[in-house]
Amino acid sequence: MSRSDLIAMARHNLAHTKAGTIDQAPEIHSIPAKDYFDAERWQKEMDGVFRRMPLMLAMTCELREPGDYKAMDAGGVPVLISRGRDGVARAFLNSCSHRGAQIMEEGKGNTHRFTCPYHAWSYSTEGELKGVLAKEQFGDLDFSCHGLPELPLYERSGLIWVVLNTEEKVDFDAFMAGYDDVLGEFGFEDWTFFQARRLEGPNWKVAYDGYLDLYHLPILHKETFGSNMPHQALYYSWGPHQRVSSPSPDLLDIEHKPEAEWPQDMLLQGVFTIFPHISIASFDGGGGRGVMLSQLFPGDTPLSSYTIQNYVLEKAPTAEQEVAADAQFKFLETVVKDEDYATGLKLQRALASGLRKNLMFGRNEEGGQRFHGWVDRLIEADDASLPKLFEDVERTVAQL
Length: 400
Prior knowledge:
The protein is α+β, with helices and mostly antiparallel strands. Helices cover 28% and strands 26% of the residues.
């Protein structure tokens, strides 16, 4: 079914390629400029979006073996993801049940036991409390009641989502609207994790707007890679999640071949975004197919964010390919830092002056319109009304 979705999108793309057209939103959409810097609004986004929605925090290829773990900061919440001895991935608050100290430093590794650096309380890879220093002196304690607080986790299509709340607020399948099946066409379970880097950026929505925007490519990036890039976009949605691509002349070369022979990498062209904070962009990883999977998180204030750029290759690289891939990844890091985020930071300062009241998203920028619409709906919805938001979401690919 997911490949048939890719075929449907390719045929829709092909029709626009031949006609020289794109889909367009009904009208230009304006949003208040203060949405990018207002502290009250920002807190609503933290509570209503980042603390309630599943966030894609890791890839299966980062945690393949029992005992593998990843400790990270996710928008101010210390998270510990672990592959248990039973092969099941779990997520926990990275905080000791004794006095709340952070147990594992940020990073990845393999272990059979998590030990708190403060008082040496220890936990299994399944989050169970296993050891208490001088327990006969500490006092009576039911170990079974004091494991690490577990966070809801979902592992699908080689990707791992975690909810930064011990209580699930939304059904995961409803939230994904079938998009995880389409992402499964990448086959990420068998890919090779290569590198990761961290970049500082502007307000998280300023940064995320860029991931959904092809309009700027031949302008902002004209000196690096964008001089021959298209500025037109086609958007496909699964609820809040979107794929953005351009009318592609490459499809003309395969139009008359049997669909079974249409190359998978061509069907997966473009940028796949996962609401509210992920962008997956494909590229030639230096001798092989690769993706840059960007994880965007709000910073400590409305005026800041940080992005973890993860570089993943379809196949384990040779020594020569490693050199080429490293150069490719450094180039991509520089483009985002010195062009996208540098522009975003300047934009942020102008908005924070309070002198501009509104920003516009054109009819050709439907992806941005849809993204901001979902943020607005989520911060206004209480927990009780959340399920209804995802009961019958728009899924444009189903209409093709």
